[in-house]
Design brief:
The structure holds 2 protein chains of 2 kinds. By secondary structure, chain A is an alpha+beta fold. Chain A has helices spanning about 1-20, 20-35, 45-50; strands spanning about 55-60, 60-70, 75-85, 90, 95-100, 105-110, 120-125, 130-135, 140-150, 165-170, 170-175. Chain A is about 20% helix and about 35% strand. A 9-stranded antiparallel sheet of chain A has the order 1-2-3-8-6-5-9-10-11. In chain A, helix 1 (about 1-20) runs antiparallel to helix 2 (about 20-35). In chain B, the strands form 2 sheets. Chain B has an 8-stranded antiparallel barrel. A two-stranded antiparallel ribbon of chain B has the order 1-2. In chain B, strand 6 (about 100-115) and strand 7 (about 115-130) form a beta hairpin. Chain B is built from 1 helix and 14 strands, in the order αββββββββββββββ. By secondary structure, chain B is mainly β. Chain B is about 10% helix and about 55% strand. The N and C termini of chain B lie far apart (about 50 Å). Chain B folds into 2 domains: about 1-40, no CATH class; about 50-250, Beta Barrel (Porin), CATH 2.40.160. Classes of the chains: A alpha+beta, B mainly beta. The interface between A and B is large, with 48 and 50 residues.
Chain lengths: ~190, ~260
């Protein structure tokens, strides 16, 4: 929808400018479009720079970043994705396996909440980036969470990315300093 | 000519208002946590499948229309003229030039239907000048008005297909619509001199070839050239800046 907002501004600017000067219309439009902050192409490693290397894995063309947030009644996961390539690349979050370790030391499966059944295999547009805030079920009182990324990018079935683990440290989630892998898909 | 500009401004406003309304109504509160909102569906901002496949184009256009066969009629409102007033009419051939041309701008929107097949709406406005001979039309003496005395307004619906070639693409499309040609004259009637305009209309079936180069995944620059199948002298060329909601229109390659 941000795109529509940019468009609206562009149309207004263009209409006004067109009534005064024909060339001004296009120069103004060019400036507006180019200045839109989310219109630039995604560049490799951008997510790693922004989130920290420990929060990001690369699977095929996709950089995928994970940031956990604690809320009083639920755990939220910010899933970031950036496409390094100019062609669309499939992303299937349904195949993301999440395992957590509770404070008591027991491992358990974590599920992404999808009450509207809208999480499907979609293609990330070429050079596009995106972010989704997801609610995790069964993730309360965890000390560690690990994301197993096999199958996350169906276009590269041979990819075997390392799991990404985050530890809860003083109320904040940080990349596991000495990852002890928790079993993948059960 | 002023009227045409006002019409264009209103049309631009009609396009703008719904966009603003949608942009302002994109989020709903989902909890009692301040600022926590549900703003869109999964994938709505990045996936090829969920982003609406629309493009918006603005550009410069040079257009020409042949005068042969055009029938011009004075543009006026009855309330602005004396009772019993008869406007002037003339044939395009009387303009003393085989064609009228203008340079201006155009714009439009397209929506992809299936794959790279798209439908669009577009309109444009071009201004030009020509040296009109003096001639009479009924009781009116028409003389060259000077300045920008040609206005070409076109509009219509297009259908086309885009062939992605990496950072470039070529498109073939056909625009169906019409062209309104307006010429201004300095007219003399009963010793009174006024600047008046006359309009003529011609249908438009304009096959085009176009080529685009991507600046970013959402912005491309392109050129097009087309000719009107209903007018042997009617042709147009354009340079366009296009904003694409889907990255690279969802496809970078024909394979």
């Amino acid at each position: 929808m941000r795109g529509f907002h940019v468009l609206a501004r562009a149309v207004v600017a263009c209409s006004l400018a067109a009534l005064t000067t024909l060339t001004g219309c296009h120069l103004g439009l060019l400036g507006i479009v180019m200045s839109a902050e989310d219109q630039g192409p995604y560049l490799p490693e951008t997510l790693a720079r922004e989130l920290g290397e420990g929060h990001v894995r690369t699977v095929g063309c996709l950089d995928v970043g994970f940031v956990m947030h604690d809320r009083r009644e639920r755990e939220l996961l910010d899933l970031h994705v950036g496409n390094r390539c100019t062609h669309p690349e499939a992303l299937d979050v349904r195949r993301l396996t999440i395992r957590g370790v509770g404070e008591e030391g027991a491992s358990r499966a974590i599920v992404i909440s999808d009450p509207r059944g809208e999480i499907e295999r979609y293609h990330v547009g070429g050079s596009e980036r995106g972010k989704e805030r997801l609610r995790l079920e069964g993730a309360r009182a965890l000390s560690r969470v690990c994301f197993h990324l096999e199958g996350l990018a169906p276009d590269v079935p041979s990819a075997r990315p390392l799991p990404l683990c985050l530890d809860r440290v003083g109320g904040a989630w940080k990349p596991a300093s000495a990852p002890v892998l928790i079993g993948g898909a059960t | 000519m002023k009227r045409a500009l006002v019409v264009f401004a209103i049309a631009a406003g009609v396009v703008t208002v719904p966009s603003v309304a949608r942009a302002g109504n994109k989020c709903v509160e989902i909890s009692d946590v301040v600022g926590e909102q549900q703003c869109s569906h999964y994938g709505a901002h990045w996936s090829v499948e969920r982003k609406f496949p629309v493009t918006f184009r603005f550009g410069l256009r040079h257009a020409a229309i042949s005068t042969a066969g055009l029938s011009f009629s004075e543009q006026y409102k009855s309330r602005d003229r004396p009772k019993g007033y008869h406007g002037y009419d003339f044939r395009g051939e009387e303009l003393g030039t085989p064609s009228l041309s203008g340079f201006g701008f155009d714009g439009g929107a397209t929506v992809f239907l299936v794959g790279q097949l798209y439908l669009g709406l577009e309109g444009g406005l071009a201004l030009g000048a020509f040296q009109s001979p003096s001639f009479t039309a009924g009781r009116h003496l028409l003389r060259d008005a000077g300045g920008a005395d040609v206005l070409l307004v076109h509009g219509g619906s297009s259908v086309g297909y885009r062939i992605p070639l990496g950072r470039a693409s070529i498109r073939g499309e056909v625009l169906f619509g019409g062209v309104l040609a307006q010429v201004a004259h300095s007219t003399v009637l009963d010793g009174k001199t006024e600047r008046k305009e006359a309009n003529a209309f011609r249908g438009l079936i304009e096959p085009r070839i176009a080529a685009d180069i991507w600046f970013t995944q959402h912005v491309s620059v392109g050129v097009y050239a087309g000719m009107n199948l209903l007018d042997s002298g009617g042709h147009a060329t354009g340079l366009s800046l296009t904003w694409h909601n889907r990255a690279f229109d969802g496809d970078m390659s024909i394979w």
